[in-house]
Amino acid sequence: MMTVQPAHRISEVKEYYFSKKLREIDEMRQQGVQVINLGIGNPDRPPHTKVLEELNKTSSEKGNHGYQSYIGIPELRNAFSQWYLQYFNIELDANKEILPLMGSKEGIMHISMAFLNKGDQVLIPNPGYPTYASVSNLVEAEMITYDLEEELNWQPDFNKLEKLDLSKVKLMWVNYPNMPTGANATLELFNKLVTFGKKHNILICNDNPYSFILNDQPLSIFRVEGAKDICIELNSLSKSHNMAGWRVGMVAANEVFIQYILRVKSNMDSGMFKPLQLAAAHALNLDKTWYDEINSEYYQRRELAWKIMDMLNCTYHKEQSGMFIWAKIPDSVESAEQLSDFILNNAHVFITPGSIFGTQGERYIRISLCSTKEVLQQSIEKIKQLPIKTKSTEQA
């Protein structure tokens, strides 16, 4: 048999960590081990009942099963526009400044393909969402990581950035509210990012899917005057509306940037299923009580996740946004991966090691809030059995 070699571009792209870990967990379950997965931010609750009803109704209507426009139906684009106006106080032209996506993760690839040539440099946060790095590798761009540090509330150190050779940097990925750290955005931070982007002609891309989770003040980078000149923002219904598997997101930018991205997107898909778009539009029109309801559940789950972190002698900030708890492991623990594997192998509970998000996450772990209170309580009972000295036992 002849051996066909893969493209060079995938030589630096590894299998996604969670893909490998889920396979390991599945193998344990096949052997009869009951594993609790607290690792992935996969909302476990359904969308609003009215959204499900809309999908069911429109899926039965004739004419809704053909190809759709690459730019999304007007109902969805208008809904995104009204959503940004109502909750972010941002005006976006539904016809020129919004492009619906099959999930915002798709947008990371589209943006990279639209703007980056081989050898262009990209600023990648450390710690940060691994897809920023993997997509940069796929388009053969050169990655320049910039450290986020707890002492600066996980914000970029602009003094250090200014000391870099930025002449070949074309794009910078930022993500606020931040994943994995839960650090929230501020208008001051966004002002600095826009100023930095304009000064060095660097496209600032803010990935913004966690705006509504445990966060009372959603903020868009477009709140900064002139941000549309140099910024792009991604958003998604995955977390905010419990629609992760629906794959509905958006990219917002000025008309020129949108057209560049559309050139890529229109060659990669043939439009989104119309009933999905209509149901998504319905979701975007829900009032604030929807967000209050989902956050009420996350508040209760967070209390239990804090208990787990306390049992593990980890330290954390209680002001975090998003659907995760990010915590620093004690000095006595060798590494986050060692602690994660110890808990998985002995308590059969999986907690994400922060090292998968970059070297700046090596002393941190992350717990997802996408498990029920009952499952989180079960995790507490399992971890209680481990030979770990807690603060309370040390004091006794």
TrEMBL record:
Q: What is the top EC class of this enzyme, as a single word?
A: transferase
MF terms from GO for this chain are: pyridoxal phosphate binding; transaminase activity
Which first-to-last residue range defines the signal peptide?
none
This protein's UniProt keywords: Aminotransferase, Transferase
Q: What InterPro entries would the database entry show?
A: Aminotransferase_I/II_large, LL-DAP_aminotransferase, NHTrfase_class1_PyrdxlP-BS, PyrdxlP-dep_Trfase, PyrdxlP-dep_Trfase_major, PyrdxlP-dep_Trfase_small
For this protein, the Enzyme Commission number is 2.6.1.-
Is the Transferase keyword given for this protein? Answer: yes
Necessary cofactors = pyridoxal 5'-phosphate
Organism's domain of life? Answer: Bacteria
- Give the Pfam families listed for this entry: Aminotran_1_2
Q: Which residues form the Aminotransferase class I/classII large domain?
A: 34-383
**Which SUPFAM superfamilies does the protein's record reference?**
PLP-dependent transferases (SSF53383)
The Swiss-Prot or TrEMBL record describes its family as follows: Belongs to the class-I pyridoxal-phosphate-dependent aminotransferase family.
- The protein's name is Aminotransferase
**Organism (species):** Saccharicrinis fermentans DSM 9555 = JCM 21142
* Record lineage: Bacteria, Pseudomonadati, Bacteroidota, Bacteroidia, Marinilabiliales
